[in-house]
Amino acid sequence: MIDIANHIIKKNDQPIYLTPREFQLLVYLVKNSGQVLTKESIIERVWETDSDVTFNTLEAYIKLLRKKLGQSKQDSYVKTVRGVGYTWVTDHV
Known about the structure:
With 93 residues, the protein is an alpha+beta fold. The chain has a single domain, classed as Arc Repressor Mutant, subunit A. The chain contains 3 helices and 6 strands, in the order βββαβααββ. The protein has helices at residues 20-31, 39-46, 55-68, and strands at 2-3, 8-11, 14-16, 37-38, 78-81, 85-88.
């Protein structure tokens, strides 16, 4: 459950504590669910004018977000699209 207005994330009724940047990243991915987002577009949207952000920074945030959401690479809502970026998927096979 994501409450955007109050910056609250819950999984199984347990709160998940995210930094403001992690929260922005999650919301951006969820709002664009099913679309493949390039690393460039994510950085531009989430970090806006901070030109010091690299792909490595984004990858570190994705890893932290997956960890905090309790997801493994095999069972993750944040899917890596190799060579492109990331996508949020709501269904698992």
